[in-house]
Amino acid sequence: MAKRQPRVVHAAIAVIERRGRYLICRRRLQDSFGGYWEFPGGKRHPGESWQRCLRRELREELGIRVGTLRPFCRLYHRYRGREAFFLVFRCAVDGGRPRPLAAQALRWVSAGELHRYRFPPANRPLIARLSGDCSARPSVL
C-alpha cells in the first residue's frame, strides 16, 4: 500500500512592528491551535502571489493596509499528517487601525515579551530570531 503524502500548506506571515513592539493575534478557541498566539497572516490561495496573499489576509483579519513588504525569512514545519511552509515579511501599518476581525484578541508586545505567549511550534524559530536568540534560526532570505 502506498504511503499517503502529507498535505502542504503555504502561508504568508507579517511581522508588523510599531515603536519597538510586534503585533500578535490570539487564535479563536474553535480554530486549530485555539487560544494560541500568532503573527498575523494566512494561507495562500492557488496562483496567488505571496504579497497579494498577505495584503488580503491583513485586510480580512485586521482591517488594515500595510506599506512595503520586506521579505524577512522562511519557516518550515512538519505537523502530523501535513507540512507547512511560511514566508515571513516585515511591514508597517499604512492605513486603518488593527482590529481582531478574525482573532480573539490583539496585542503589541516587545521582543522580550514574545516568550511569555503560547505560539504554535512552527513560530519558535521566528520568535527566537526576533528575540536575538540565534540558536534556533529560521532560513534567511
Report on this model:
The protein is mainly β. It has one domain (10-140): Alpha-Beta Complex (Nucleoside Triphosphate Pyrophosphohydrolase), CATH 3.90.79.10. It is built from 2 helices and 10 strands. The protein has helices spanning 50-62, 124-130, and strands at residues 7-18, 21-26, 37-38, 41-43, 65-66, 70-79, 82-91, 93-95, 105-109, 139-140. Strands 1, 2, 3, 4, 6, 7, 9 and 10 form an 8-stranded mixed β-sheet that branches. The protein has a two-stranded antiparallel sheet with strand order 5-8. It is globular and about 40 Å long.
Features:
single chain, 141 residues, mainly beta, Nucleoside Triphosphate Pyrophosphohydrolase, 8-stranded mixed beta sheet, two-stranded antiparallel sheet, 2 helices, 14% helix, globular
Q: What's a concise summary of this model?
A:
The chain has 141 residues and is mostly beta strands. 14% of the residues lie in helices and 39% in strands.
The shape is globular
CATH superfamily: Nucleoside Triphosphate Pyrophosphohydrolase
- Radius of gyration of CA atoms, rounded to a whole number: 15 Å
Assigned CATH class? Alpha Beta
Quickly give the CATH architecture: Alpha-Beta Complex
The N- to C-terminal Cα distance equals 39 Å
Class inferred from helices and paired strands:
mainly beta
Q: How much beta, percentage-wise? A: 35-45%
Order of helices and strands: EEEEHEEEEEHE
Count, helices: 2
Q: How many domains make up the 3D coordinates?
A: 1
